[in-house]
Amino acid sequence: MNSSVLRRAIAPAAGVTTGVGAAVGGGTLGVSSYFARQLVTPVVPVDDTPVLEVGAHHVALAVTEDSIAPGRYGMWQNDLETHARLGDVLDISEDRVTRRLDGIDFGALRPGKARFDGYYFCGPPATSLPVELDEVALETSLGPMPTWVDRVPGSDRWAVLVHGRGALRGETLRAVPVLHELGISSLVPSYRNDIGSPASSDHRYHLGLSEWADVEAAVLYAASAGAREVQLFGWSMGAAVVLQFLDRSWLAELVDRVVFDSPVVSWGPVLDFHAGEHRLPRLISRVGARLLRSRLHGQAAGLGEPIDIRLTDWVRRADELSRPMLLIHSAVDEFVPYAPTAALAAARPDLVQLETWDVARHCREWNVDPDRWERLVAEFCSARG
């Protein structure tokens, strides 16, 4: 999930009122409606990180929270025309940070604005991923969904990797080499309202409550290719999508185990968290959630059908879960609060293995400590049901 993009989208809601007192009362419905609409509306990312200098083996950037973060990252420029891979911080001053330039997958990185990302690996025609990806189209009720596939010859074990809200499929590619080494084939699907994919009739995210059907198409593809066992991965909102698939799909019985990174296991606390981040009263997020499921859903958020986020509360519904789960989450996640993940692990210690990071930003645990991330995933996924 692109947390910085969504924070910028929600931020204007904080400016609709001049203070908490003004928000409560006559302005509550309007602010709550705006708040809810931003959550479900796809946002087009923008290049917002200044690139100051590009050398053969380094790049200098303006200092931002992203650009000084420890670890390995990616960077887009000119929309999706250029992708570079950035390594460790080499030098930092008050307004300038220099990072190692590990390579440019395609395009030409130049001084100007760029967009920092947590992917490091990106999709074809990337040169950095040590496996070959093929492009296929999954048949869904909305039309063909672009999907990458890494086939391990003769394997009957498959994984489906589901990215987060506002992210690209490249977010999930860090898992593909690990799975390939285990003999597990990977599917990396897009889903409705992604860039380059069919849109829903209302052009809105449904927070997993409709997107799960696109994951079902991916699992069906794997089954038709001979999968006897499927593992599901979800990053951020991708976890919410996977949980709805497990609850609703006739193919859920194929799923052996689940891996979540920075997962949304309940949308209510996410809304509350962002209301607090913008100094809005919790009332705003609570009214926004009610608007999403009310008869005013179309007027409030532009939705074609209501969204009841109470159905996404898997802490409350923990006794309904039945698959082993590996949960990877940073305690300082700036977008999806850690507390619900910890609560889910505490509620189901028989099923859930929680692994906590202390430094990483949202969905960037691999970036900070790839060795640990890959070891945990390999150990968990190597087991058979």
TrEMBL record:
It comes from the Bacteria. InterPro entries: AB_hydrolase_fold. It comes from Flexivirga endophytica. GO terms for molecular function: hydrolase activity. Keywords: Hydrolase. This is Alpha/beta hydrolase.
